[in-house]
Amino acid sequence: MAHIVSSPYRDKVLQTFQKYKTPLHMDLELPTLQAIKQFVAMGSGLALMPEISVETEVARGELVRIPVRELHVQRKLRLIYRKEAGLSHAARAFLKVAEAVATERGGRYRFQRES
Fold it and tell me: Up-side HSE of residue 46: CA atoms within 13 Å toward CB?
């Protein structure tokens, strides 16, 4: 099962399977991560997904996480805004929530202000 949208992460999965000469059968492509999770939860296959996208389902025991050593991918996301512009109340609130979540979860979550 796979996400229908091409991405660098999907390409990495394909390349890794080719590297290890392992057959990969993606008989079904779905438009959203939510749809993929539902199909996997129904027992209709398996999928390689970002860990953050299945945290809740794994915690509830609906899905099982199986680490794949050969597919360790780190991803950096950044929030950016124009330095000279003032932020709206909503934007400031969002930054505050993002920082609180990063602090609470620790580990792979990090909130670092850059100048």
Answer: 8
pLDDT tens, residue order, the chain (115 aa): 677 778 888 888 889 999 999 998 888 889 999 999 999 999 998 998 888 889 899 999 999 999 888 887 777 777 777 777 788 999 889 988 988 888 887 766 677 777 6
Tokens, residue 28: 């079904």
This model's pTM is above 0.70? no
Tokens of 100: 């609180």
**C-alpha–C-alpha distance, residues 29 and 5, integer Å:** 9
In this structure, what token pair is assigned to residue 74? Answer: 């780190």
Task: Return d(Cα 57, Cα 12) in angstroms, integer.
Answer: 24
Q: Is the dihedral of CA 22, 28, 32, 33 positive or negative?
A: negative
